[in-house]
Amino acid sequence: MEKQILTTKNVKLSYGDFEALHGIDLAFNEHEITALIGPSGCGKSTYLRCLNRMNDQIDGVNISGEFKLHDTDIYGENTDVVELRKHIGMVFQQPNPFPMSIYDNVVFGLRVAGVRDKAKLDEAVQTALKQAAIWDEVKDKLDQNALALSGGQQQRICIARALAVSPDVLLLDEPTSALDPHSSRQIEATLLQLKEQYTIITVTHNLQQAARIADRTAFFLQGDLIEAASTKQIFMNPEHEQTRDFITGRFG
Ligand SMILES: Nc1ncnc2c1ncn2[C@@H]1O[C@H](COP(=O)(O)OP(=O)(O)O)[C@@H](O)[C@H]1O
Ligand SMILES: [Mg+2]
User: Which residue, by CA, sits nearest to atom 9 of ligand 1?
Assistant: First the structure.
C-alpha cells in the first residue's frame, strides 16, 4: 500500500476576481512520480506553486483549502516558508542557475542554512551532482560558472541545487520543455532514478513524457481536476470523456 506524503483538499485559488483553481483534491504517494497534465492555462503551474507557497507573494491572490506535508499544515500559522522549501524543492521550466560557480550553486541552500564545514559542503556537492546525473560531466570544473554549461546541464545543476538540501518532495514545472530531445531524455532518466529517494511531481505538456516516466497522472481542465489515476489507466482506460479527448489529441 502506497504511503501518501502530500495531500491537498478542496484547493481554491483566485487571482483577484479570477478563480483559477475551483477545488482540487489530490494526494501524492511517496517515491512515485506524478505528472500533472492538461491544456495550457488549466492551472497546472498555479496548483504546483501552491504546494511550496510560491504564489504567496502575488498581489491579490487568495488561496484556500487543506495542504499537508506528512502532518504539517503547509499554510499553518507556525509554518516557516524557508523551512518548508527545504522539504519541498522546486525546479522551473527555464534552467535558472545563479551566476556563480557550479559548486556555489549546489551548496547555495546549505550555506543559507548556515552550513560552513568545507568537508560537509564538498560531500553534499558530490552527492547532489551524482543524484542529478551530472557529476561525471562537471567534477573537474566545479569552480566554473554554471551559466557556461549547456541548457540540459544547467537544468541538472538546478536539480542538484534543489536536492542538496535533502527535500522530501521535488516539484518540477515543465522541466524539459526548454531542452533538446537528448537533454530531455537525460532529465527523464534522472527523475526515474530519483524517485527511489524522493517524491516527484512534474508538470508536463508532453504526454509521451508523462507516459514514459509517471506512475500516476492527474488531468486538469480549466481549473478542475478531472481525474487522477495510474498513468496506465489515464492513457488506456480513462474514466472521463474529457480525459480521453485530451489524451487522443482532440484538444489541448
Ligand atoms: N499571476 C497571475 N495573475 C493572474 N492570472 C494568472 C496568474 N498566473 C496564472 N494566471 C491565470 O491562471 C490560469 C492558470 O494558469 P497556469 O496555472 O499558469 O496554467 P498552466 O500552467 O496549466 O498553463 C490561466 O488563466 C492564467 O492566465
Ligand atoms: Mg504552466
Answer: 46
Tens digit of pLDDT for each residue in 191-235? 999 999 999 999 999 999 999 999 999 999 999 999 999 999 999
Ligand 1 atom 7: residue of nearest CA: 15
Per residue in 150-164, pLDDT (tens digit) is 999 999 999 999 999
Spatial separation of the C-alpha atoms in residues 100 and 27, rounded to whole Å: 37
Pull the grid cell for residue 19: 478563480
Helix axes 118-131, 151-163, angle to 10 degrees: 130
Q: How far apart are CA 175 and CA 178, in angstroms?
A: 7
Q: By the 8 A CB rule, do 160 and 132 touch?
A: yes
What Cα–Cα distance (Å) separates residue 87 from each residue in 3, 82, 146, 178, 199? 17, 9, 24, 26, 11
- 32-80 pLDDT per residue, tens: 999 999 999 999 999 999 999 999 999 999 999 999 999 999 999 999 9
What integer pLDDT is reported at residue 2 of this predicted model? 79
Binding site membership of 46 for ligand 1 (Cβ less than 6 Å): yes
